[in-house]
Specification:
Blueprint: H1 3-28, H2 30-37, H3 41-60, H4 62-91, H5 95-127, H6 132-155, H7 160-178, H8 203-233, H9 238-241, H10 244-266, H11 268-288, H12 292-306, H13 309-319, H14 324-352, H15 355-373
């Protein structure tokens, strides 16, 4: 591995860490934001929805932008903009201005997320090895770090404004430094040069988008509803209920750290099928158990099971065409729609029946992932990725 490739790989991983840190810092201080502006739960939900919609709007428009500019150029703009708009969130003095700042942060984050996944695919191609799970593990590290730093900030008496302003102040120069590490996207092949804007993507891209949709919906369901489920359905205390999400994230981190090695050995197609079945089985334990200890333990295994599905979907999307950026933009737009719609669907179903019944949707989603995985091309039948420096090619089997 050359020094430039090692630098590019580390830069991509650290970009995921930075994204997780910025987003996680907002999430961990939501109670402080509520106190600062005197917001109700509905108002906090509205600000999160504004953030999500802003991100989704950008993601839906990224195919053409990625084709024209490439991930390196977009990251050099989007990452600093995320830091700037994070500072705007920190300083917002009223609810209307908070909504504006939330939309702007979402717009910047949507571009950052798609571009860093496309850059990850570019780095994978250059290495000729599966690396995307390790990069997404960087996101988990950033999110966990945000939680630890948030706890320290609360203990030190830092306000919401001071905490997020400090994170933004550190993130801005970090984003500038990382901009030097990015690789240029591969030049699109002549047959795929117009793919991003004028031609439909190959059908496999939409299949991978559907798989990502299901995986992100499971992740969003666990993130947003596990605490209420543990407290309201199983009778856990507030402190114990708060353990569910970090336990789940811990499982995600372990799964992603090991994911690239597992993929290399067993192949991407089989990995998605088994991960979908494991997600269904482990989530079934969560929703059928009457024991808090068993449910929390099962959440660790849900994290392990679902962790690799979306990174592998992004990786395969990047391999499926001559130009990875537009393909990843399409997959990402479909996937993150699941993250946005999932909590809403669960909330609606819980009103009609119960939260336990509503969470059963995640079991169905795991089965759908496994079924969809069976329709992916078999190893060796699809590969648009060029050979890496060691002469090997990424494919559905890689």
């Amino acid at each position: 591995m050359t020094r430039d490739l090692r630098t590019a790989r580390n830069g991509a991983i650290l970009t995921f860490v930075l994204g997780g840190l910025m987003c996680g810092s907002i999430t961990v201080r939501l109670p402080a934001l509520s106190d600062k502006l005197g917001l109700s739960e509905a108002s906090i939900s509205a600000s999160l929805l504004a953030w999500s919609l802003g991100a989704l709007v950008t993601m839906q428009s990224m195919r053409g932008v990625m084709t024209r500019f490439g991930s390196r150029s977009i990251l050099r703009v989007a990452a600093p903009l995320c830091a700037v708009t994070l500072a705007m969130l920190a300083l917002a003095p009223s609810f209307p201005l908070l909504l504006v700042a939330s939309v702007l942060f979402g717009l910047a984050f949507g571009a950052l997320d798609i571009a860093m996944n496309a850059q990850g695919s570019t780095v994978e191609r250059a290495h000729g090895l599966p690396l995307m799970n390790g990069m997404h593990a960087g996101w988990c590290v950033g999110a966990i770090s945000a939680g630890l730093l948030g706890t320290a900030a609360i203990a030190a008496g830092l306000s919401f404004t001071a905490h997020l302003a400090l994170v933004a102040l550190v993130s801005l120069p970090a984003a500038a430094m990382l901009s030097r590490t990015y690789l240029p996207d591969p030049a699109p092949e002549p047959a795929s040069a117009g793919e991003g804007t004028r031609r439909r993507m190959p059908p496999v891209i939409y299949l991978l988008g559907a798989i990502a949709f299901c995986a992100f919906m499971v992740e969003g369901t666990m993130a947003d509803w596990n605490g209420l489920y543990l407290r309201n359905e199983l009778g856990a205390s507030e402190a114990v209920a708060a353990l569910g999400y970090p336990v789940f994230e811990g499982g995600m981190l372990i799964g992603r750290l090991a994911g690239d090695r597992v993929r290399t050995r067993f192949g991407a197609r089989g990995m998605i099928i088994v991960s979908g079945l494991a997600t269904a089985a482990t989530f079934a334990v969560v929703v059928t158990s009457s024991s808090v200890a068993v449910a929390v333990s099962a959440m660790l295994f849900v994290g392990l099971a679902v962790a690799t599905i979306s990174p592998v979907a992004f990786s395969l999307a990047g391999e499926a065409t001559g130009n990875p950026g537009p393909a990843i933009a399409q997959t990402g737009a479909m996937g993150y729609a699941g993250l946005l719609l999932g909590p809403v669907i669960i909330g609606f179903l819980s009103d009609l029946a119960s939260l336990r019944t509503a969470l059963g949707v995640a079991v169905v989603l795991g089965v759908l992932i496994a079924v969809a995985g069976r329709f992916l091309p078999r190893p060796g039948t699809t590969s648009a990725a060029p050979a890496g420096p060691r002469g090997n090619k990424l494919s559905m089997a890689a």
